Amino acid sequence: MFLRVIPSVRMPIGHAFFDYRLNEGTAHRGDVLLVPFRNRLIAALVADITPTSELEDRAIVLTQPKKILKLSDTVVDLCVEGARECFVSPPTMLNAWLRHVPKRLPDYEPHAPAKDVHWPKDKPRFAKHYVANRFIDPNGIVPTVMAEQANGRVLVVTPRQKRAEHLATKLACTALHADLADGAAWRAWTAFASEPHGVLVTTRIGAWLAAVADIVIVDEPENDDHKQDELTPRYDARRLVELAAQINPALRTVSVGTTPRLVDATDAALTPELNPILTTVPFQRGQWSAIESLTQPAYDRLAEAVLQNRPIRILHAITGVRGRLRCADCGWTLDCARCGSGMTRFENQARCLRCNFTAPLPDTCAKCGNAELNKSAIGTQSLSAVLAKQFPGADIKIFDLSDWMSQSVTPNAVFVVTNVSHIGGFAEDVRRRERLIIAFRQLAAQACVAKCDLIIQGPEELIQEIPSWLKPQGLKNALSAELADRRAFGFPPARILVKLIVSGDEEKSRQTKTQLDALTQNNGWSVRGPFNVEFRPKSREQRWIFHILPPNQAKKDEIVQALTPLAALGILDLDPIAFFS
Fold first, then answer.
1. Burial of 172 (0-12, 13-18, 19+ CB in 10 A)
2. CB-side exposure of 491: number of CA atoms within 13 Å?
3. 289 and 246: one domain?
4. For the whole model, what pTM was predicted?
5. Assigned domain for 105 exists
């Protein structure tokens, strides 16, 4: 008998299965064994058991192999199909899932029990809920988990670590995320897979456990942080859940968010109307207060809140002392020596927000010698210091975007957003408006739940428009208009776009362009690019981006099959980090 296994090790695409002769012992499809591989023992997933093998003369003999786990057939199918869509080998995908296998394994063999189709017939297999309070709303995360625990293993997939920890505390269960110690992470997910009932909250690293779950709840499906941003494998947790549901007819999925993804723009009519205590303040000349970045109306509300002993929270997207180290005379900026982007001042050092490189602060401008390097927008550190001096003893906290995403808003606070156009975070132009709509509705939902006064500053045109996004019809109009723009310019989700990342000099990019043109000539495919990647560590080779557009009528399976040979040219991304497809 021969075992065809997927080893847990990074391998180039094209290498998938390895055959071993089982001399003594038993094994089943879905088992994870320890097998000898290149002079060491590694974990491997049994993908098939056959009486013959084309490599039987060279197959390594296994005698009573050590069993680590007993998983389901769904895990095998999800690994193979997920790897195919990500243009990586199944071993690379499995390695990303299992991560670090402990050297000391328990004596027992964790077992994932198989179940028949069992979801309640009065509940849809696929459900979407749009709510303001994703925790305690009747269709929110916590009530849904409590109701579903009796039906089996409930996996909650959430986009951020802090949120995973918060949810796990509320649900009295374990949170699985990248910062969890290897041993603790292994124990957390194997315990979840082994029991017939239970709850596990995970970030995207555990999304593959949808293959052993009975119910999967996707938290904030509109959030980009569900996408894996490592170079390989580049997968989307939401897509893994979709694939698992396609493979396993016994799996129920529920998504709980505040705003539909752009692919679900028609769902916008089903979203809740948000009614925060909202004040909008447009940027106008003569309206600025003595405190930089605050208009006079916003400053007056802050002063009033201080007198009322109310907490004040300010969302300011610019971190550090100043947004950039920039000369007041000539406009020179200090660029990062590692990746080339602009440096920000933090206390007594300069820091790059892109790659976290730090450097000493320059005394003078490298171009004109001027000592004034503060011609840039005020940062969170400076604004916090100014407000502490202006209102000593007041309960005032400044949030940057990271703080806002990971912390709860204090009830009954006065919440000020210094520039609403910044709250969508860093995004390419084609996605900036979509990100802003999602972020603003999330902010408004927080204000509703915490019963805050929400004061929004921003450009006048935007300030006039954003209140309409809080109403179902206004949101539907905004998302429909955004989708129409994507359709006009041929961007996802209106059509599938594939990103190819190629390393090398300009000559290499020209050669790749020639190859792509030859492959796509007269078959309905088209190529855009190459586009130069400007900001990168100096230690990293130059990179170029190509956009490959298949014919509109092409099916996903056909696209994957046609693109797989191109994986040798660089990194292929069918669902690019930059776009939804």
1. exposed
2. 16
3. no
4. 0.88
5. no
